[in-house]
Write a structure and sequence with these properties.
This protein is of the alpha+beta class and about 170 residues long. The protein has helices at about 5-15, 35-50, 55-60, 65-75, 105-120, 150-165; strands at about 25, 80-85, 100-105, 125-130. It contains six helices and four strands.
Length: about 170
Amino acid sequence: MKQLTRDNAEKRLSDMNMGDMPVIEYRPNPARIDSDWFKKYKKLRREFIMSLTDSVELLAMMNLTQDEFMALIMGRALPDNFSLRMRIPLIWGGDLSIDNMFMCRTFPHSQKLDKFILDQYGNDIIWLPNPAKKIYIPLHNISGGDGGNATSDRLSQIAAQIVANRGME
């Protein structure tokens, strides 16, 4: 694929129904990945999903059941059809850190983002998805859970209790 400009990259994402996804310009820098990266990733993954208690408003928009919500913020499991992504891939010099991660739906968003990035392979400059928050939900999908505000309020109360129990206030 020919080199994209910011406008071209944003247009491609818009064509994928993710026009609200910010991008960053990045020059891929092939990096060596430590052999124990996956062990570190698994630990970081748990820390990341436990850190989502600060994003309860967005979690409430994901239509999770209470069991899925609890498993997520307790660091036990991602809900079905959700993925954790690296903002800057490890193979291009990204680091294993919470700041380099975000969560989104696997289908269709993570799959479309994979295609968006892979289509740019070999270019000097890559435009990488970089949502402002830890969770990416397209603006056109933010409509609240089946319970509306009650769902958000209920999940907010649960998250506040968990944070208090962890001594994180």
